[in-house]
Fold these 2 entries.
Entry 1:
Amino acid sequence: MRKLWLLPGLLAAAAMLWGGYAVSVPALVLNLAVGWSFIGGGLVAARRRPESRSGHLMIAVGLAWFVRIAGAVENDAAFAVGVATKTLYLAVLGHLLVTYPTGRFTGRWQRVVVVAGYLLTVPVNVGYLLLTPLETQNIVVITETVVPEVPVAALVVLVGVTALGLALLAWLLSRWLRAGSVLRRDLGPVVWGGAAIVLTVVITYVGALLRLPSSVQVVLAWSTEAVLVVWPLALLYGLLRTRLDRSAVGELIVELGAGLPDDLRAALARTLHDPTLQIGYWRPERREFVSADGEVLHGSTYLESNGTRLAVLVHDPALEPELVRAVAAGAALAVQNSLRLEEVRASRARIVEAADAARRRVERDLHDGAQQRLVSVMLALRLARSTDEPGELLAEAQAELGRALDELRELARGIYPVLLTDAGLGPALTSLAERSAVPARVREVPAHRLSPLAEHTCYFVVSEALANVAKHAQAREVLISVRCAAGTVVVEIVDDGVGGANPAGSGLRGLDDRVAAAGGRLVVTSPVGAGTTVRAEFQDLGESFAASVDSDG
Amino acid sequence: MRSVACCEGEIMRVVVADDAALFREGVARLLTDAGFEVTGKVGDAQALLELVRADPPDVVIVDIRMPPGFTTEGLDAARELRETHPGVGVLVLSAHVEPHYALRLLDSDARGAGYLLKERVTDLGELADAVRRVAAGGLVIDPGVVAQLVGRKRVDDPLEALSEREREVLSVMAEGRSNQGICERLFLSPKTVEAYVGSVFTKLGLHQGPDDNRRVLAVLAYLRR
């Protein structure tokens, strides 16, 4: 289908080759090049930016360019068509320039300018055709001809076109001056190419008005056509550069893959060619997006992960939304990774700290408890050796040893719940419930054994949750349940206490870390006055082995 | 040396299984001193089973944790012996105050089984008493284990309806003692003990079993629920 777009050019070529006039090769090539470059550039633009009508207007310029070549056929009707449409392409070009980059009118005056442009081309040409006796001649090929007397009507048209062209130039210039760097980059080839075309057209018309020697006018006409060929190429370059921008996104992703750069803002600004770009990170405590300089930012492009807005980008609105989205998606990935890494680092540090604290506690318990008692026992035995009636001392030593044993047993149990490995989760949780300071009941436990990691995580969660309940909840009863379906383990500890638990408190924080270490998540629901539910959910990735189901539990 | 007679007037024969040689020898010596005949001392469950097969004793005393796995080999051996040699009493020694282990020994028609904390062996009277009760087909549950069951926090605790004395009776009952044993332990007359036991069962809504063992199981099941 797309090959059909070659047809107008081929028809024009045929008209020039076999129309009856001699057309030089450079003229042939130049005419075809101008038409085809507009149509080709327009096709690519229409596909790349379907939301913009500029592509269609570029195609229209190309078609208008080819239509006027009808004048290359040695035939009255063709000559009439050629003359009527001779300057139509200029009107379409003006239309394209005024409405770039959307291709749509955004104001009344734009409409006025464009309509005036169209009125100054075809109707004027048709009027010229009707009112002036003409001899058919090749109007496509630029030749030196005797400059005829310019009639007054034509003079008006020439002045009108010149005025319109100058207005267009002024408007392009002011637009350029007002544009931000991104829009400038976008507008660059359009504005300068367009300005060059308008300028050459204006100069050509002024030249005609001033009746410059025809040799000069020929040069001007040639230069207009040369610019006309180059301009769509400039537009194509612009499009190609968008491609380059896209590959810059790829480079950005590679860069972000190596870790979040120290200055993410600079990296994104570089990729998007928008030095004014700002990035604001979500501050949950302030419920605002805040830049590195502490400025509160409001933007429209968010760095999102699973529906959570991590950061916001404030950028030049002229940036291609698709490109910004791609960059934002890449950056979101990096920011999320870095946040995760930060979380993991913090959680790892807390886990290590908790382990250290636990070891310190064990050391203290051993030192102040069993060790102390053993020293007393040794002392008692030593005294018993040098006394005639050692009975009382020995009994004392025995009693002290008994207490040391009790303490050691409790300590050993706290360090590692042997029941968990020996008998599984059910008996171990039942034992925890039996020792709980707040009445606790185990309502549900899987009948089969889980992986050791899963069982330990469950046990830890229940044990810590029970300790928290005892400390804070003022609960009457705690219910414990563990369910396992399709590899997902859900541990739930529900109390009927005062609620209002702080998930950031050290107890729940430790739980969160522990569950996160098993790849899961902890949800604490604790409305004030309505009890607390601690729910841990994680995947049991370890081998799930069906061990002998304990009759107990 | 005085000897402890079994039901048929013979000296009670005991096997000791523990991987710690010092402990094994110590217990053997204590038992010998107390008038038992220690017919075997072994260091692991396999050797214990072979020994019992070759020459069944009246009672085996076995450590819960032994080679090769150091988990519950002693307990497993005890359960196996209850199947293969129902006439042999089994007393499991353990370092864990865990009702779970104790109750694994006691199925619905359990007899001649016991679970004691290891350190109880230092009280010769208690050890000898436990061995005798197990040999006679009775049940022995360590006071520490019972204390944990009785001390458990409950919502609307039914045990709160019991007087302190009744609770003591309940605990000693759960340790596996007969009324006679409770009398000796709490220095009460048989009639008083009977009255306490009766009121405990009434208050807790329990039925007294047809024998002492059933009674122990009922009490333990009640405490564990």
Entry 2:
Amino acid sequence: MYEPKIIAFLCRWCASAAADLAGVSRLSYPANIIPIVVPCSGRVDPRAIIEAFLNGADGVLIGGCHTPNDCHYISGNFKAFKRIHILKKLLKQFGIEPERIRLEWISATEATKLVQVTKDFVETIRKLGPLAR
Amino acid sequence: MSSNKPKLAIVYGSVCGGCDVSLVNVGEPLADLLTNYDVIYWSIALDGKLHTLEKLERIDVAIYMGPIRTELNMKLAKLIREKADLVVAYGTCAVYGGIPGLGALIKPSTLVETMKSTVTTTPGSEKVVKSMEKEGLKIPPLTNQCLPLSVVVEPDVLVPGCPPAVENVEKLIDILKKYLRGEKPVKGLMLAEPRSLCEECPRRPKDMSKLVIPNIYRLHEAVPKEDKCFLEQGILCLGPITRAGCGHRCIKANMPCAGCMGPVQRVDDVGLKFLSSLASALLADKEKELGEEGLAKLLDKIVDPQGLFYRYTLPTSYLTKLVLKRLRK
């Protein structure tokens, strides 16, 4: 069976803390996710996302703090939102499914949301199939 | 005709002709140069044929204009790299792909079909092509991809610009004069500034770090003021990530930069970098007020991000590499 590879850029303050919490709470989520901890979701360069795709990822998940007021750096999550919004449009023009990128706000306490989002996302990518087909 | 002068060939890719005009536009310095070189191939000025190039064992300098779009372009590009000591990629098309590069993601068969079926084609041109074929003349087929010269072979000097600015062409002529004395430039010399256009822009705001893009307007929706930064007026200008050295011709004519000089040093993908900087500066003061929905509504005013961000550099984009990798599998 086809197993998608997914890179997850998780912000240090919220989403990755949620992943830690999921770990200590013994919640299980698919092993297709390869988490990379970044200082802020606003720090994720579109180039890094494309680089992930070029190196074999089938989907990219970006996890940040809730808008409008949770971001540790005040407005990093809005920067991430704007970047991903335009990038999705750009990908569509190039003929790549924009669903391969997903931006989610996950706070440090929402371990169950993280688990749900990863399960959902893996299913979406599984349906879309590998990127280079 | 044989002489001991060094040999110069000016070779065409799928060129529009603007590069030639810009080369001739420098005037006297060019005339000086041409007395010192023996021009052996230049389609616009001489009756040079491909076999004259093939017969020669060595060419000293070859200037290539336009992207590689047909099999003939490809043949010429490889031929000049094999025979010429100094290869010059002249114009944005030869360096980054340029306007013809926008067809990089479209199948060659689709391109030909569109060309034949739309009103821009002269009626009866098919007949002309057929009568040519009877006489043994063939139109070279399109290559699978549209590539700039700099991707296929390694040029020694690169002159970006659509067309290259007079100052840069003069620099190139100086280099060619020095070459007569045996001085060869460093490999991969780029005849443009390494920094961005904003750094020397006459409209540069006092504090670039506090720049906020208040809205997004397309060119027909706003009348740009003559002395204010385009981005501060909500008109998207590619100045922040584009090389300086063009003499900001467009800015002087009250038009935003379209990015023909290519990316600044150490940036290799114009679109992704511009997207990143755009997202940082756009409505930076009203993010919380507008919320995600309000921002999304404004961002949707960018109608054609691909055409805006990659107008001159599509074939060198990482996204194109990704898509072509996918198509080839």
